[in-house]
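Here is an idea for our session: we take a single protein and study its fold together. Which protein we use is up to you, so please pick one and set it down. Once you have written the record down, we can walk along the chain together:
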Amino acid sequence: MTMSTRFAVGVLSLITAGCASSGVVPIGDGVYLVSKKSIGCGFASAESIKADLYKEANEFCAERKKEIHTVEVIAHDGIPAVRCANAELHFTCVDAAKNSQ
C-alpha cells in the first residue's frame, strides 16, 4: 500500500468513524441533554447525527421503562472551514400514557 493510499484510508476512517457523544446529561427539572459533533466536518449532514441521538435517548428512557418526549432538538449541517455537523437533543422520559397525549 502506498503512502498516499494509507493517508486516504486514514482520512476516510476518521470521517466515517462517526461522532463523539456527550452521553446523556441531566440538565434540570427532569430534562436531559445528549449531543454529538461530526468528526468528518466538511459538508456532513446533521440528519444521521440526530438519528444517533434519538437512539441513545430512547435506550436511556427504555432502561427506565419509559418513553422519550422531545423538548427541543437543534441541528446544524457541516460547512467546510466553518463548523462540523452537530446536533443536540433535549428530552424527558415519560410514561407511555403521558406521551400519547
Summary: The chain is about 35% helix and 35% strand. Residues 47-63 form the longest helix (17 residues). Helices lie at 3-16, 47-63, 96-99.
